[in-house]
Design goal:
The protein is mainly beta and 330 residues long. The chain contains 1 helix and 17 strands.
Length: 330
């Protein structure tokens, strides 16, 4: 497939996004690897200071396809009580000529609901700013001197906040969060020079999962993530992973869009299938973890790209000496 066709296909996707007046939030197959990107109440869950880096190259082979990077750092402020979690997360997302860069500070208050300190109910909130930008040098005008295309880069900064609730024990977890609270379904930004940029849409996330022991050497972890903006199709990720010798995760995920109820303006006849993913994560040491996933599209996109690649790194900065820290599998 030639570059012209791939570029044209991406432009069609962008054109559809402008007609819908909506830009989706970032997407990761390894959403459990960097939980702070999904729910601000995740801050401090691992009860030690932890840094995560994730990078996703979506739709490899398509010029201008999404490229997303996330860096986060979180932990608990008191290793004895472990009631307060703090976190910081930076997100950079690029799609064609448009870019979104965000930074949030996260606060989570963790309620202990058992004497063994294994069950916690956490309430989280995050405040931050998002910079939306469009680079006119990456656009090609159909008509010369098109005044609707900026000559250079245009940017606009907006405040934002997130909220979330998260429950976890050694075998189960469930969480709900709302991201981009200051956005609405049809938000777009007018820059100082009168150019239009789309804002990210407010989303609700519902995630959950469990851990079941199959044998002394193997556990299985089924999880799910439901994402909805109340305008487009509801996105559902279903995931199942095997934990081998508490060291290696090997799993798969299936992503699809579903219509849970009637939504005004929702296009009919779309393929509900999205992608299937293969995921592997390795605990290199007690402090260092690395993960990789590959997504294969199941819809018409499969003919225009070579899949999506995602890599994640995690590093713990405090050990478990002289205190009790239960194993964290979510």
């Amino acid at each position: 497939m030639g570059n012209f066709t791939k570029q044209g296909f991406l432009l069609l996707l962008l054109f559809y996004g402008f007609n819908a007046f909506a830009q989706q939030t970032v997407q990761f197959s390894q959403y459990l690897f960097n939980g702070l990107a999904v729910n601000p109440a995740y801050a401090g869950y691992r009860e030690e200071w932890n840094a995560c880096l994730s990078y996703r190259m979506q739709w490899a082979g398509v010029n201008g396809a999404p490229r997303t990077a996330v860096a986060s750092f979180d932990g608990v402020t008191d290793v004895s009580e472990k009631r307060v979690g703090l976190g910081f997360i930076a997100i950079s997302d690029r799609l064609g000529a448009q870019s979104t860069s965000s930074f949030y500070g996260n606060y989570a208050y963790r309620l202990q609901i058992d004497d063994e300190e294994q069950r916690r109910l956490t309430f989280g909130i995050a405040f931050g700013v998002t910079q939306y930008g469009i680079d006119g040098t990456r656009l090609v005008a159909v008509e010369p001197n098109d005044i609707s295309i900026p000559r250079g880069a245009e940017n606009k900064i907006y405040p934002d906040f997130r909220i979330g609730v998260y429950y976890a024990d050694p075998r189960y977890f469930i969480g709900v969060s709302i991201l981009d609270m200051f956005s609405s379904a049809r938000d777009q930004i007018t820059t100082d020079n009168n150019y239009k940029i789309l804002k990210q849409v407010r989303h609700v996330y519902l995630s959950g999962g469990a851990l079941f022991r199959l044998s002394a050497a193997m556990d299985i972890k089924p999880t799910f993530l439901i994402k909805d903006d109340f305008n487009g199709p509801t996105d559902i990720d279903l995931n199942a992973s095997l934990l081998i010798h508490k060291t290696v995760w090997i799993g798969t995920a299936y992503r699809m869009g579903v219509k849970l109820w009637n939504k005004a303006g929702l296009q009919t006849g779309l393929d509900q299938r999205n992608a299937i993913a293969a995921i592997a994560q390795v605990l290199v040491s007690d402090r260092f973890k690395v993960g990789y996933s590959y997504d294969y599209s199941l819809n018409a996109l499969a003919n225009y790209q070579q899949g999506s690649h995602e890599i994640s790194l995690s590093l713990a900065f405090s050990g478990r000496n002289n205190r009790t820290v239960h194993a964290k599998f979510f």
